[in-house]
Amino acid sequence: MDDELNSKLKPLRDRIDAIDAQLIALLNQRAAVALEVGEVKKHYNAPVFRPEREMQVIARLQQMSEGPLENAHIGAIWREIMAASRSLEKTQTVAFLGPVGTYSEQAMFEYFGQSIDGLPCPSIDEVFRSVEAGAAEFGVVPVENSSEGAVSRTLDLFLQTQLQIGGELALPIHHNLLTQGGSLAGVTRVCAHPQALAQCQHWLNANAPQLERHAVSSNAEAARIAAADPAVAAIAGDRAAAHYGLQIAHALIQDDPHNRTRFVMIGKVPAGPSGYDQTSTIVSVKNEPGAMYKLLEPLARHGVSMTRFESRPARVGTWEYYFYIDFEGHRDDERVAAALDELDRKAAFLKILGSYPRAR
């Protein structure tokens, strides 16, 4: 049986080995050209990472592909290829909400690839500060969750910063209940980020109502605590479980099976048009009749589709608000530019947070 199996597999494996030899030669050729691109960029002081260009490369290859690889596979493979090429020019540092093992870290690697240096930060504020100070070229921050809504601190910091949004990623959030021994025996409390506790409250009510619930700064911090205390369970993902040596007592305990968090990438360099873009703004209006209609009417008239509308108290007056508005298109697109020009004239305040490739 083994001889028959091996005789059938050997010619197929030989073909794979031959294809791999071609692939490695082509990948090294590609890397050599990427190094030439890097030299040209260096001469003109151009940025190493261009998210719109990488989005266009992946989209073109996905359109060319006839299978059996799916689009998600092609995206993952080429993201790593391009990340490795970037690292030959310069290994870039990306700040994220730490410690190691958070969903922010997972979002960072899925967006930038593995060939980067991650900089874990104790707070969202520190992610912004690290990028502003030059300790990191980019940062990754959560901006909203599909079940719990906006991440307020991120929205507030966007008012204060000069950083630009350069990209976004919608990450599926799979919460697990982690313990040292893989069971709840001897466990008296559960730790997690406040949003994770909220996203799992129905499961906890039904399956572990005896556990005291403690909010901590991140799910990875909860995993770190659980790794040091057998009486503690943590709500966190697979990455945290592996890093802190915990076992899964119960998997996929989030109340919403389609739970997702949207992350945005922040940096100092604006992204160019990719052909599939989104623009994020902060707007406030004068306190007068019809002010909101006057604000939104230019978007409709110029055919600009709004994708998100969020309000936050302005904290500078009674019942005054900032509105966080996302809409399709890049600020350099003619129709978007025209709508923004009118918004700027009609709004009491307008800040463009960035135009960037939309998550596909």
Quick recap of the structure?
This protein has 360 residues and is of the alpha/beta class. The protein is 44% helix and 25% strand.
Along the chain, the helix and strand elements come as HHHEHEHEEHEEEHHEHEHEEEHEEHE
Q: Average pLDDT, to the nearest integer? A: 92
CATH class of the largest domain: Alpha Beta
Q: Going by CATH, what is the homologous superfamily of the largest domain?
A: ACT domain
Subcellular location: Cytoplasm
Pfam families: ACT, CM_2, PDT
Keywords: Amino-acid biosynthesis, Aromatic amino acid biosynthesis, Cytoplasm, Isomerase, Lyase, Multifunctional enzyme, Phenylalanine biosynthesis
Pathway: Metabolic intermediate biosynthesis; prephenate biosynthesis; prephenate from chorismate: step 1/1; Amino-acid biosynthesis; L-phenylalanine biosynthesis; phenylpyruvate from prephenate: step 1/1
